[in-house]
Amino acid sequence: MTNRVVVFTGPMKTAKTLRLLHAYQAYAANQKRAKVIAFKPRADTRYNDKCIRTRLNPDVCIPAEIVDSSAEILKLVKPSIDLVLIDEANFFDPDLHYVVMKLRNQADVFVTGLDKDFRGLPFGPMGQLLAIANEVHKLKAYCDVCKKELAEYTQMLENGQPASAFVDTITPEGSVKTRTYETRCQEHFIPPHDLDEWIRVR
Ligand SMILES: [Zn+2]
Question: Are residues 79 and 170 in the same domain?
Fold first, then answer.
C-alpha cells in the first residue's frame, strides 16, 4: 500500500483549506471507517477553537488538536490512524517534514500551508515538505493589482509600503494594525528593499 503526502499550497486567498476540507470529505466518503486526526499550530490565531475552518465555509469544523511543535504531532498519532490532516503547516518548526516522512509509513497525510513568506522565500518547513510530497497542488490567487488569477506571492505592507525583510514572519494576519496583506503576481510583487541584507545576516 502506498500512502500519500498531499500538499495544497500557494499564497493567501487560494482556498487551500477549502481544498483540504473537500479532500478530507472525499476520503471519508470513500473509506467509511477511516480514522482521522487533524492538527493546527498554536501560532494560527484566526480561530481560537479546536477546529480547522475555512473562511469560505466557516460553519464547517474539522475537529483539530492545537499543537506547539511537530514532535507533538508524532506523539498524538496512534497506529490505528489512517489519515493525518495538518493545516497552516508554514507556522511549524523545520522538523515537520521529517515527522511527515515518518507518518507516511502508516497513514495518508494531507497538508496546507503558504509556500512562500512575504519575502518571496520558502516559508518555514514548506520547502522541504514540498520536496517529500508525492502530490503538490500549487494554487494561484487573484493579483490585487492586475486582478489576474496569477498571484503566487503574499505581499506584506506596513502602512501601505512593502515591509522590511526583518519583520517577524510569525505574526498572524490581523494582529498588527498597520500591517496589511495582498496577493500579487510575479510582475507586481515587490521584494523587501533590504532582502539582500537580511539574507547576509540571518
Ligand atoms: Zn498582477
Answer: no
Phi/psi of residue 88, nearest 5 degrees: 55, 45
12 alpha carbon – ligand 1 mean position (Å): 14
What pTM does this model have?
Answer: 0.93
In the chain the first and final C-alpha atoms are separated, in Å, by 42
* 170 part of a folded domain: yes
Q: What percent of the chain has pLDDT over 90?
A: 81
Q: For residue 155, which phi and psi values (nearest 5 degrees)?
A: -90, 120
Distance in Å, CA 68 to ligand 1 centroid: 36
Strands 153-158 and 179-184: antiparallel
**Residue 132 belongs to domain spanning:** 5-138
| The predicted structure's pLDDT at residue 190 | 98
Closest CA to 114 of 134, 92, 140, 88: 88
Tell me: the pLDDT tens digits for 91-133? 999 999 999 999 999 999 999 999 999 999 999 999 999 999 9
Total domains in the chain come to 2
Instruction: Please list the active-site residues.
Output: 88
Sole residue written with cell 498571484: 151
- At 48, the pLDDT band (50, 70, 90 cuts) reads low
CA of 7 to the centre of ligand 1 (A): 25
Pick the closest to residue 16 from 77, 72, 85, 65 (CA basis).
Answer: 85
